[in-house]
Amino acid sequence: MTRRITAADIAEAAGVSRATVGFVLNNTPGQKISDGTRDRVLSAASRLGYRPHRAAQTLARGRSRLVLLVLPDWPLDHSMRQYLEEAAHTLDEAGYSLVTYTRHPGDQSRPLWESLDPDVVVGFGAFDTETVASLRASGITKIYPNPDHQPDEAAASSVTTGTCLQVEHLHGLGHRRLAFAGTTDPRLSSLKGQRLATARECARRLGLDDPAARDVDHRDDSATKAVAEWRAQGVTAVVAYNDDIAATVAGAALRAGLSVPGDLSVIGHDDSPLAAMFVPALSSVRMDTIGVGRHVAQEALHLADGRPAPGGAPDVAANLVPRESTATPRG
Amino acid sequence: MTRRITAADIAEAAGVSRATVGFVLNNTPGQKISDGTRDRVLSAASRLGYRPHRAAQTLARGRSRLVLLVLPDWPLDHSMRQYLEEAAHTLDEAGYSLVTYTRHPGDQSRPLWESLDPDVVVGFGAFDTETVASLRASGITKIYPNPDHQPDEAAASSVTTGTCLQVEHLHGLGHRRLAFAGTTDPRLSSLKGQRLATARECARRLGLDDPAARDVDHRDDSATKAVAEWRAQGVTAVVAYNDDIAATVAGAALRAGLSVPGDLSVIGHDDSPLAAMFVPALSSVRMDTIGVGRHVAQEALHLADGRPAPGGAPDVAANLVPRESTATPRG
DNA sequence: ACAGCCCACTAGCACGCGCAAGTTATAGTG
DNA sequence: CACTATAACTTGCGCGTGCTAGTGGGCTGT
Predict the structure, then answer these.
(1) Which residue in chain B has the smallest CA separation from A57?
(2) What single string gives the DSSP state of each residue in B87-109?
(3) Which of the residues A180, A289, A331, B285 has the least number of beta carbons within 10 Å of its own beta carbon?
(4) Could you give phi then psi for residue A62, rounded to 5 degrees?
């Protein structure tokens, strides 16, 4: 059990004062250090294997340089992991660390932000009022998205660009009557609402009928009912909230003896592995979440440091991935 | 911008010394505090909304009470999230916080354990030597699983109990020639190896032929080739590494004009949503990961605190979930 | 009455670091 | 030459807590 190397050890090894070590290591602005001294300190630090004590730094400067990202408790697919990676990387370059945290509904233990005191707390979509209250009570003032602002259009667009691609794809294939299949998961309802609205808007712009909307769950017969209803209404193609929902709809159609895409085209969203593995393989939309991750990280840095805000919406590249589950309508 | 409430504020409000406040708040063993004083301190603390400064505590006692869980970078499904939730909860009850971290292959930024100095770092499966070196260099000594020990039988069993269920299920249905479908993902290769070995062992015990093993990837034609080969060998049922692999195999069989389960039974593992949504719905095995999460948390506490080790293997409840993709073999 | 003892507390240092204020030596200026 | 300005440091305080080493007062026993 060897003692920890502190800045004082470096100071002694380099023959300077502790303060000088601090100035060199943080290259503190407004401090003149000669090259010789700087080198001596730096080499001593690396020779001794110095690592700053995070807690001591936090205590001394009053900021933890931690950004807490609060995740939804739904499964994290690959694109989400990329998002996290990019955000963590951007923050790391700025000297901050990203810590992720998932708050579960029935969780009575104190949330992590109470004990970690992060400089910034970032969420997916807006925080609910209860959470905001808990954050405020913990002394956290820097929150993104800002709970005092209305959710802005720009941010919303990043979440719905793919939906238009779905609609346009089906329109391009010649479909005229579309339906929208949503999820029953309450945690996703706000996102679902945005995507449904976008689908409506895009359909209108393309001169299509207003899509019939239904929520679907793979654990009951809601998909079977929805498919029957849609067939009766002359719907030939379904825009699904995500690939899981697309699979549920396609599955119900297949079990009802319909052909996919012959009788019903189905398109998913997110391009999860499931989309490629399903039979028939599901057409989908792949989102480039990396741009979003960087954007969010920059917003967090803006709040933490006061450095300039990225401004505008994150750039999301959405790409259509056509597969077997969509085709021109029969007849 | 109001000042933070410190223990000194409470001391003043309660008319006692700062030390007394500390004793009351941590109810330090071996310290006698009269009931009156205790009440005054406690009520002052709650009245002022005191929350201890984590960094200061960390600095003062030399331990951060943070447990860092290093996650693999594959997608986190629902059972994994449950695992995390349970581990976090168990740790929380003991006054520790769980922080998760994903290290990505191409990530050149410093790993989170360098800056967070957690008391314990916990991994999934064993850490590779490079990672262990990085941990050691960061002064982290408490690592689970212990890198100095050989992976023990008990831990391995928790990861393979489900595999036997798969084999037994197919055996019970009357299958005699099985195959094992693995993943090509190198990150999963060690786990795959364990499951394959288990499948072999269980097959042997049941008097079955040694299963033919093949790795399969949904992005190429490996599954198609594997299915053709297995058919030629008289294989009637496939044990898949997980549900994704099961879907890939089942998909290849369907595309080859075979019937599932008529010509080929397929069983997956993990009971992911995909299994339920696939057509035909995939039989699978559901693991109770909650028990494992608690076990791991207790191991971490054992390392952190010296409290008794849980001992033995975590209790994993594995349940068979029979669906449409498995049936008695034809003929 | 006085030592001895326990109870219920207090004084104060240590943890490792950031940073404001002070100090010394040297160069520059009228 | 006296004086100021600057470079290149050093001294030392403060961040909020945990915890060890006291400290005084009341009670008991002889």
Answers:
(1) B55
(2) HHHHHHHTT-EEEEEE--TT--S
(3) A331
(4) 80, 5
Nearest residue to nucleotide C12, by CA–C1' distance, is B19
In strand C, the nucleotides that come within 7 Å of a protein beta carbon are 7-12, 14-21
DSSP secondary-structure letter at A307?
P
Are B55 and A51 within 8 A, CB to CB? no
Backbone angles phi, psi at B29, to 5 degrees: -65, 140
Of B25, B52, B30, whose CA–CA distance to B40 is shortest? B25
Architecture of the domain whose range is B7-52: Orthogonal Bundle (1.10)
- Asked whether the CA dihedral A109, A112, A117, A122 is positive or negative, the reply is negative
Q: How many CB pairs under 8 A join A and B?
A: 129
Which of B219, B274, B325 to substitute to test the interface with A, most A CBs within 10 Å?
B274
Q: Give the C-alpha separation, A328 to A324, whole Å.
A: 11
CA of B14 to C1' of D23 (A): 21
DSSP string over B303-315: HHH-PPP--S---
pLDDT in tens, B20-72: 999 999 989 888 899 999 999 999 999 999 999 999 999 999 999 999 999 88
Write down the CATH number for the domain with range A66-152+291-314: 3.40.50.2300
Instruction: Give how far Cα B25 sits from Cα of A11, A73, A303, Å.
Output: 37, 33, 33
Domain with CATH 3.40.50.2300 in chain A: 66-152+291-314, 158-286
CATH architecture of the domain covering B158-286: 3-Layer(aba) Sandwich (3.40)
User: Residue A60 CB closer than 7 angstroms to strand D?
Assistant: yes
CA distance B99 to chain A (A): 7
DSSP H helix total and E strand total for chain B: 13, 10
Of A59, A84, A117, the CB nearest to B102: A84
In Å, what is the separation between the CA of B19 and the C1' of C14?
Answer: 14
pTM, to two decimals: 0.83
pLDDT tens digit sequence for B183-241: 998 878 888 999 999 999 999 999 999 999 999 999 999 999 999 999 999 999 999 99
**Contacts of residue B52, Cβ cutoff 8 Å, sequence gap at least 6:** B7, B25
Phi, psi for residue B213 in degrees, rounded to 5? -115, 140
Of the partner residues A4, A89, A279, the one whose CB lies closest to the CB of residue B279: A279
Token duo for residue B51? 């929350």
Give the residue from chain B lying closest to A46, CA to CA: B137
Distance CA(A62)–CA(A172), nearest Å, equals 57
CATH 1.10.260.40 location in chain A: 7-52
What phi and psi values does residue B181 have, to the nearest 5 degrees? -105, 120
Q: Which two tokens stand for residue B37?
A: 């004083």
What number is the average pLDDT over the span B87-103? 90
Q: By C-alpha distance, which of B166, B230, B153 is closest to B196?
A: B166
Widest distance between CA atoms in chain A: 88
Does residue B32 lie within 7 Å of nucleic acid chain D, judged by its CB?
Answer: no
